[in-house]
């Protein structure tokens, strides 16, 4: 299995901006070695079908889990490397998506003003954002394709190894299970004139193997499992724990992912459920998830 992931990096080119981004990661790491740090991955990964990419395979992830969770980790004192899909949701700015920002503003006598009913919410968001920015506790690293994501995952993990058990990995990105190797991709746009298209996708190497054994062996590693069949959820979470030897799997069903999750360890299954009343009041299940995860991380540090 290890040779499979090694072969992936030997055959797939790194992102054009890889060296530039990793320089920023190293600087960020050096600034926060005395703190707890979280690597949070977020959003979906595209699988290109051509080198000059026009068509690609994608998934529905908007980056909600990762972006929301990032805010709660920051509120609890963590420094965060936010590895996110470009143009997916980001912490703080997620509150002002689409028409939300326009609905918060008004024009009076030629001046743009914030509506009175929006001021308290905007003030709270901006205050939190500016505090994090002033403390330099959030580094954003964007990716688009599966290849970008996996290159940055390895590079960032390697740098974060210096934190030892103070490092937490919260791998919430929806990573594709399949891809087209570079040597099998055509150079230019696939033409529809050629008739029906048939492609063969290869399995993506399971990178949790090197994550837990080589790159950040002392980190507290959390993975996520999304299913549509309730009967498979805990079963597959336990299989992942047995296979990759990490600390925690957070499982959720597609239909109820915003209101219910199950936290699975080798010895425990714990549900977190948000009621319909809590959801109506703007409650976010990620707050409860992060509180629980931080408690587990603190216990992990105490045990070591």
Automatic annotation (TrEMBL):
GO biological process: coenzyme A biosynthetic process
Origin: domain of life: Eukaryota
InterPro entries (alphabetical): CoaB-like_sf, DNA/pantothenate-metab_flavo_C
GO molecular function: catalytic activity
Stretches that traverse the bilayer: none
Pfam families: DFP
All copies of domain DNA/pantothenate metabolism flavoprotein C-terminal, residue ranges: 170-274
Family: Belongs to the PPC synthetase family.
Protein name (Swiss-Prot/TrEMBL): DNA/pantothenate metabolism flavoprotein C-terminal domain-containing protein
Organism lineage: Eukaryota, Metazoa, Ecdysozoa, Arthropoda, Hexapoda
